[in-house]
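note to self: dont lose this again. the chain is below, predicted strucutre after it. 338 aa total, dont forget to put it in the shared folder this time
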Amino acid sequence: MRRQVDWLARQTLTEQHLAGFSLAIARDGKPIYTQAYGYRNIAQQLPATPQTIYNIGSITKQFTATSIMLLQEDGKLNIDDPLSRYFANYPWADHVTVRELLNHTSGIPDYLNILDNKSLTLPKIVRALEKTRLKFAPGSKYEYSNSNYILLGVIVQRVSGVPYDDFLRRRIFQPLHLTATSIGTTPLDMTNGARGYTVVNGHTKAVDPRADSVAILDFPDGGVNTNVLDLAKWDTALDTGRVVKLKTLKTMFTPWTEGKHTSETLGGATNRSTGYGIGLRIRYLSGHREVMHDGEWTGFAGSNATFPDDGFVIVILSNTDGFDEDPLTNKIFTLFYR
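---
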């Protein structure tokens, strides 16, 4: 089995022109395969390892969503609250709920489409959203928008009374001993951090770290940096009710189903839906429930997939944007669950 996983991984590295990536597979909370391929820094010939730290982009959203659910368990908010409880200046705040931010049914436009990525700050985004108009009636359809999770991060800060970064450290990172996980910095600042790359005409090129690739790395929609070992540890803790209560977890794992919902068959073998729960995508792979999120930002891409009914986890993190992780995840899962 290990040889087959290794062959699939090396094939993926070559076919997608990746600088490098790390892989962790766990079952029932125990790592059963951890390996890395390629380089975390090509120029310095530094190999990727399971300890290599990457920016995980939108995988961060499951940490933000969990923070909101923790505050609900604390009795400090309710996800059916209107946003007017937290944002008095937003003209549409009475019509949008926290839940609609969590499942991307708010109608709020994505700030990445309305602001220059090179000059982003959190206050600038929050002010800009005050002037936006909703794209559709809240709760009427699903449309993924990073703005939702920017606002959720602000809510975490306002309700908890501590900065969003500190809340993550105190309530999630430290209790779970996620020692390689951080926010508010970049992988380049860390001993085991990876440099970001992109692929241009089949050639792997380094991303300029001074460009907009680092502009949002402390934001609640994509700011977490970690390695595959910590992420697999997080997955097991979340899926087994050690972070939030199982009742809360059921809410998080329930996809929004009243709007647009499609399914497709890939290769005649993989059936999965596009349902989005609370900070997580819920779909099915060969009849097995898959709870996952992918993430991508300039220079980085990854996928965090768990199969909670099987106690199975596949984490893939890369320092090359544009990486399509799904085929590798699906093939690995099929090896173990034919």
